[in-house]
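pasting for ref
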Amino acid sequence: MCGIAGVLSSAPVDPLVMRRMVTTLRHRGPDDEGIWIEAGIGLGHRRLSVIDLSPNGHQPMVSQSGRYVLTFNGEIYNHGALRSALESEGVRGWRGHSDTETLLEAIASWGLERALRESVGMFALGLWDRHDRKLFLARDRFGEKPLYYGRAGKVFLFASELKAIRAHPDFA
């Protein structure tokens, strides 16, 4: 179990607010915490290390190309097969062995729709496309992992739990 959270705003995202949101999810991931902020987007993560226990699995994770940033909760059961398929297409330079990295590079190589279609597992995610400046939220086909989202004033928020959304100062 991990915890994810995010903010999309027309104003710069406050790192302290992002940290407060992520801290509410500490029980979902005691092994690591991360935030990534760029202007009006903030992604946060609490990590429970399962597959790659090294720091190479730290999230939010940026793709090799730098285009995509991912915060991910779940497990991709067939990530070994996906990684082999990506390697046969020329993807190299893996940082670690996490299913998150495999999914992220699948998205970068194949696009979000195909990467999700090829993925077998349980998950919820927030993906920021730095090139097109678009946020994508997705869950597995059965919705096994929680993903809440909504607006607080002019700010769009998402998280694994409602208490992370309530931690944002614009939430009423």
